Amino acid sequence: MPIVMFDPTFQSSEVVSVEVEEGVTLQEAAFIANVPMGDACGGNCGCSTCHVHIREGIESVEEMDDDEDDILGKADDVRHISRLGCQVRVGAKDLKVNITRESQIAFVNEHPEMREQFEKNV
User: Fold this and answer.
1) pLDDT of residue 118
2) How far is Cα of residue 77 from the mean position of the Cα atoms in its chain?
3) pTM of the model
4) Would you say 120 and 25 are in contact if contact means Cβ atoms under 8 Å apart?
5) What DSSP letter does each residue of 55-120 carry, written as one string?
6) Contact indicator for 90, 2 with CB cutoff of 8 Å
7) For the chain, what is the radius of gyration of the CA atoms?
8) What is the pLDDT of residues 87-100, one digit of tens each?
9) CA distances (Å), origin 82, targets 1, 63, 93
10) Which of 48, 77, 84, 111 has a CA 20 to 30 Å removed from the CA of 69?
11) 105 phi/psi in degrees, rounded to 5
12) How far apart are CA 43 and CA 50, in angstroms?
């Protein structure tokens, strides 16, 4: 099974890895790994709060469709390795993923109990 490695976030100074089945979204993998990824629309490609940068393995995931591309246009710091975590399904290869600061802030806005930890670690 492929491994998704999430770069350090405000919650952890360590890389967090999780082994998942192919077809799981990055958003689902983040939930399983207990890492902070925004989820304002519930994974319906209706916002950009799950914006990530796929640093390694991007060639193993399907290309983005027009809906994802449109929504991604609302995000900050969009790069050629940018994707929406709710739309990317893990393929056969391992992935290295950076959850953007914007996504982590969205997570904190959705989970205000995390605000103190966020402010202390950024």
Assistant:
1) 85
2) 14
3) 0.94
4) no
5) EE-GGGSPPP-HHHHHHHTTSSS--TTEEETTTPBP-SS-EEEEE-HHHHHHHHHH-GGGHHHHHH
6) yes
7) 13
8) 999 999 999 999 99
9) 23, 11, 17
10) 111
11) -65, -40
12) 8
3-121: CATH class: alpha beta
**Any idea where the domains of the chain sit in the sequence?**
3-121
Tens digit of each residue's pLDDT, the chain (122 residues): 999 999 999 999 999 999 999 999 999 999 999 999 999 999 999 999 999 999 999 999 999 999 999 999 999 999 999 999 999 999 999 999 999 999 999 999 999 898 888 888 86
Determine the Cα–Cα distance for residues 41 and 61; give it in Å rounded to an integer: 22
Q: Cα–Cα distance between 122 and 117 in angstroms, integer? A: 9
CA-CA distance, 53 to 100, in Å (whole number)?
7
Q: Would you say how long the chain is, in residues?
A: 122
